[in-house]
């Protein structure tokens, strides 16, 4: 849904990534000019399969997938982690970016949705890079921290799961990612609700997680162990580069 404001701009009223841009048309322009013409066939196929799934609101958008793929190549990532897989669009964007001996430790409490995307990932020839673990991510991180050889071993982590745990993930991930490595937190603008007045109408889940997102953003901004950068891509991605 779009409406005109006083300046005559068409602005999205719905929740979702597009509300962060000036207009629907601008977002469509980005997709059609830069993203879709270069989207790998496997990612297109997975995007179309995911679009038919009832929870498709959760998927990473195609422009964000393109961004992740580029970022991973720019930093020469090899050992990576993803928390929150769903049908695997961001996972596939990652798997396609890594070298053949690259690794992704991928965690989700729901294996069923991962299995929707798995045949596409297999067909793309990148499934061997993925170590999927079904279950909550926090205990896996705690277990990894116990073994010192895992400390500083990850080049990149994409966090896209339960927003009320991001702070808990952050504490652990700072030990697991190497100095110079990157943690990317997804949905840090939370449908634009981070600037909504407390009494503004909001969907229940937006309202529920909003305080956690606000708390995370403040904590990241005050954390001297990282450099940060907020990108208004998708629903907002915060890149954190570990510096100590
Ligand atoms: N990155 C995915 C993509 O590109 O399609 C989207 C992930 S979706 C927004 C969030 C996922 O986090 C869901 O699939 C959900 O099952 C998972 N999740 C929720 N709580 C979790 C937890 N404690 N540990 C691991 N995964 C969790
Ligand atoms: Ca997300």
Provide structural commentary.
One of its GO terms (biological process) is methylation. This is Caffeoyl-CoA O-methyltransferase. It holds the Pfam family Methyltransf_3. Keywords: Metal-binding, Methyltransferase, S-adenosyl-L-methionine, Transferase. The protein has helices spanning about 25-35, 40-50, 60-75, 90-95, 110-125, 135-145, 165-175, 205-220; strands at about 1-5, 10, 80-85, 105-110, 130-135, 155-160, 175-185, 225-230, 235-240. It has about 240 residues and is an alpha/beta fold. It has one domain (about 1-240): Vaccinia Virus protein VP39 (Rossmann fold). The chain has a seven-stranded mixed β-sheet with strand order 5-4-3-6-7-9-8, with helices on both faces. α3 runs parallel beside α4 (about 90-95) and α6 packs parallel to α7 (about 165-175). The termini are far apart. The model is unreliable at about 1-5 and about 10-20 (pLDDT under 50). Bound molecules: S-adenosylmethionine and calcium ion (CA).
Summary tags:
single chain; 244 residues; alpha/beta; Rossmann fold; 7-stranded mixed β-sheet; two-stranded antiparallel ribbon; 40% helix; binds S-adenosylmethionine; binds calcium ion
Summarize the structure.
The chain contains eight helices and nine strands. It is an alpha/beta fold and 244 residues long. The strands form two sheets. The protein has a seven-stranded mixed sheet, with helices on both faces. A two-stranded antiparallel sheet has the order 1-2.
